[in-house]
Design a protein that fits this description.
The complex is a heterodimer of chains A (246) and B (272). Chain A has 246 residues and is of the alpha/beta class. Chain A has helices at residues 18-27, 78-92, 115-118, 120-143, 147-152, 175-195, 216-228; strands spanning 8-12, 31-37, 49-52, 69-72, 97-100, 156-160, 201-207, 235-239, 242-245. Chain A has an eight-stranded mixed beta sheet, with helices on both faces. In chain A, β6, α6 (175-195) and β7 form a beta-alpha-beta unit. The chains are: A alpha/beta (246), B alpha+beta (272).
Chain lengths: 246, 272
């Protein structure tokens, strides 16, 4: 099965964030990308945004040839999660890579009032539940019963975690965020084990703060290497000291 | 202020020539790093000099003042004498570039101004800018025809000079250029909200355009080009706004007479 361009198809959440945009800029030539965003339209060429040269508006710009397919969705809603997968399959006919990059972070001390506790469910839902649910929907709607095909196309899931899910940073107020990312790491291991029956790999990337401490490009590159390599059930940790694996 | 026409080729001052043409909630364009760092620095510095003249609560020529009714802003109007570096905005190449970009036949008439919203300014109202404007007839097609409100009131065409030939045109393209603002972090407010419907609450836009320095928003003025200034909670917001115009007949033929939003309260300036 191939889509019209012949490129592999990537379903990427967190589309309006720095990482989503950078990934598109770096790898839109390699993948047909279905880019999921919520509030802010992603600033990359798509069916809703085209780049033009103001001094030569009729000129064909090379960037527009790699336009992504932008999908507005609230991933906290089940109907939107279902729609994202269905629309991607309707548009491209296949999904080869799922990158769960949407997330949220609320940092506060346990002594700072109720906001931390009020944020608990939201952080766990977007950082842990949504990647799990979206992965299961792609399996259910497309990857199930395609073992040979999945292996041939090296299909996989990459979950964007954080070093906060691996290490305990003191005095940062990251308790709930850290726990939600740790949950995502463990869920990734279980996805790797359970989805391997369908020929699907699952890995996580756990970067430190970007672009403040490491480059966003290095994180996008890590996602690409996880997707195009062969690891399964691994966590790629990207810290200021370099890259390590768990 | 007084000045001479802009003479530097636009290709020498435009920087990031990848402007985003967006479709939702209505066709518009957003551009970042519009001008070269050197030229933007000149604009920023000159804008700061204007602000240093202070804010006036009553209309005062050449000084930021309260001269737009029902709109929480201090402004200075563009004029044919607007000096460098701001005269790039009233230059024929800039005008023609924008008209060509949007694909509209324009009249060459331009109105606009410098806008300063002090921190805590109120949000505006959701509106579409499809308004008429009056201009003195121009005899020089090589230059743009900048509104001269002191000789011909932009909103009514009233003139105190006997025999002065004037004409009406309709706003065709609105441009907001953001400059001389604090670094944008997302918490300041002061964005321009874009809406699908006029009845939407002003604080619930479909899309927001942040006032990032050296960026611009432009759109064709049409019946559904709903937009508004959003309250700036913590920092001032500064911008240059301008409108290109098109013949009245174009709008009548395309959207009908009722589409034109006539000014309600007699002679006054315009808002966006």
């Amino acid at each position: 099965m191939t889509n019209q361009s012949g490129k592999k198809v990537c379903l990427l959440t967190g589309g309006s964030g720095t990482l989503g945009i950078t990934f598109c800029q770096m790898y839109a030539a390699h993948y047909d990308i279905a880019l999921v965003y919520n509030e802010h339209q992603p600033k990359v060429p798509s069916q809703i945004i085209k780049l033009v040269d103001p001094l030569s508006p009729a000129a064909a710009l090379p960037e527009n040839r790699q336009a992504v397919f932008a999908i507005k969705a609230d991933l906290l809603q089940e109907e939107d999660r279902q729609r994202v997968v269905e629309v991607t399959l309707a548009k491209f006919g296949r999904i080869d890579l799922l990158v769960n990059a949407a997330g949220c972070a609320y940092w506060a001390s346990m002594f700072d009032g109720d906001r931390l506790y009020e944020s608990f469910l939201d952080q766990f839902e977007l950082n842990a539940f949504v990647p799990l649910r979206l992965s299961s929907l792609v399996v259910e709607k497309f990857w199930k019963n395609r073992l040979d095909e999945n292996r041939y196309y090296n299909r996989s899931i990459v979950n964007v975690s954080s070093t906060a899910g691996v290490y305990i940073y003191r005095d940062q107020g990251q308790s709930v965020y850290s726990a939600s990312k740790a949950a995502l790491n463990y869920l990734t291991m279980h996805m790797a084990e359970e989805f391997s029956i369908a020929g699907i790999r699952a890995n996580a990337i756990a970067p430190t703060s970007f672009p403040r401490l490491i480059s966003t490009e290095s994180v996008a590159d890590g996602i690409y290497r996880l997707a195009e390599g062969s690891p399964n059930g691994k966590i790629m940790v990207l810290d200021v000291t370099g890259e390590s694996w768990l | 202020m007084s000045g001479e026409p802009w003479k530097i080729p636009l290709s020498h001052v435009l920087y990031q020539r990848r402007w985003q043409a967006c479709q939702e909630p209505f066709p518009h364009m957003v551009a970042y790093e519009v001008f070269t760092p050197d030229f933007y620095s000149w604009l920023d510095s000159a804008y700061g000099n204007l602000l240093a003249l202070g804010l006036s609560e009553t209309p005062a020529k050449g000084q930021f003042s309260r001269n737009i009714s029902n709109y929480d802003v201090y402004s200075i109007g563009l004029s044919p004498d607007t000096p460098a570096p701001f005269n790039v905005f009233i230059s024929r190449p800039w005008h023609d570039m924008l008209a060509n970009l949007v694909g509209i036949g324009t009249t060459g008439d331009v109105n606009g101004g410098f806008h300063h919203h002090s921190a805590g300014s109120k949000s505006g109202q959701v509106h579409n800018d499809l308004n008429p404007g009056w201009f003195i007839d121009s005899s020089d097609p090589t230059q743009v025809n900048v509104a001269q409100n002191d000789l011909c009131v932009y909103t009514s065409g009233k003139t105190g000079v006997e025999g002065l030939q004037v004409h009406q045109a309709i706003r065709a393209i609105a441009v907001l250029f953001y400059l001389h603002n604090p670094p944008w972090t997302g918490a300041e407010g002061g964005e321009t909200g874009l809406y699908s419907h006029q009845a939407q609450p002003v604080l619930n836009p479909d899309k927001t355009i942040p006032p990032i320095n050296n960026s611009l928003l432009l759109f064709e003025c049409r019946p559904n080009s709903y937009h508004s200034f959003l309250t700036n909670r913590t920092s001032p917001r500064n911008s240059i706004i301008m409108w290109l115009h098109r013949p009245v007949e174009d709008v009548l033929g395309r959207w009908g007479e009722k589409s034109i939003k006539q000014w309600k309260n007699g002679p006054k300036n315009s808002k966006s």
